[in-house]
Amino acid sequence: MNLLYLGLLLFVTLLTTLYLASSKAIFAFSDWTFHAARVEEIYLNLKSSSFFTFIAARTFHNTGAASFLFYPYIFFYPWAFLRFILSPVNAFYAWYALVTFATATISYFSMKAYSKKSLASFIFSLVYTFAPYRLYLGGAVFGEYLAVTFLPLLFLGIYEVLWGDKKKWYLLAISGALVAYAHILSVFLSLEFAVILFIIKLITSRGISKDRIKSLLLSAGVCVFLVLPVIVPFFTDFIGQGLSSAKPSISYTMGPRYLLLNSFSAQKGWKLSFMLMLTILTAWAFIKSRRNWIIYGLGLFACFLTTRYFPWKLTAGTPFEMVQLTARYLSYASLFLTILFALGSSSVLEEHVTGRKKLALSCSLAVFMALFSLSSLSVYRDTLKHVQDMPKTSANSTQPAPFKRLRDYNYYNQFNYKILFGAFDYMPKSSLTSVQKQNSLLMHQAYLNGKTLTLSPLIKANQISYQVKSEKAADVDLPVIAYKHTTVSVNGQKHAFRRGNRGTVVVGLKRGQNTVTVGYKASPVFYLSIFISILSWLALLIYLVKFKAKYAQ
Question: SS3 of 39, please?
Answer without folding.
Answer: helix
